[in-house]
Amino acid sequence: MRHPLATLDWPVSTDRLLLRRAAPDDLDATWTYRQLPEVYEWIGSAATTYDGYRERFLRQERLADVLVVELDGRVIGDLTLWIQDAYAQEEVADQAKDVQAEIGWTLDPAFGGKGYATEAVRALIDVAFRGLGLRRLYAGCFSDNEPSWRLMERVGMRREQHTVKESLHRTKGWLDGFAYALLAEEWLSPE
User: Fold this and answer.
1) pLDDT digit of tens for each residue in the chain (191 aa)?
2) Using CB atoms within 10 A as the burial measure, which of 29, 31, 174, 190 is most buried?
């Protein structure tokens, strides 16, 4: 079965950025910023060696979920869209298949503070709701990762959960976590 992202026309352009499906050739560009301490601190899975990163990045099932963000032909970040089933009772489970997604993002800190992450995530949300017809998106982060949860709020996601010391950080121990979500009807409805 083709990955849902493969059914769409790529690339997707915003005012300043280009989003496209990741390719094996994006390995070095994404490794360059993902191994930086300020990025490594917050990402959920961080390889400590280039070989480990290459093995993980090039796994077909992983690569299929990744989009890269380009600025003037340079990769400055990546986005993920993990399409999933919603919880449902058995009798209606078929209606809950592939209707929601977890989204994520990583941006090269050299390009921070210019609105690129906000622009890219807004484009990802639009792809998910308009292009794929998903009904719900969600994202999570450590509560200490203020830039991430502020981005979620900027793009219109609502905080649905604050968990207390439920999230284990690789160096900081148990931290609080935040979960945010957005429904298609909220995104697509006229203001």
Assistant:
1) 678 999 999 999 999 999 999 999 999 999 999 999 999 999 988 888 999 999 999 987 778 999 999 999 999 999 999 999 999 999 999 999 999 999 999 999 999 999 999 999 999 999 999 999 999 999 999 999 999 999 999 999 999 999 999 999 999 999 999 999 999 999 998 65
2) 29
Please give the structure tokens belonging to residue 85. 């089933």
Cβ atoms of 15 and 126 closer than 8 Å? no
Angstrom distances, CA of residue 73 to CA of 6, 19, 69, 132, 174: 21, 11, 9, 26, 39
19: Cα separation from own chain's centroid: 12
Q: Cα–chain-centroid distance for residue 89?
A: 28
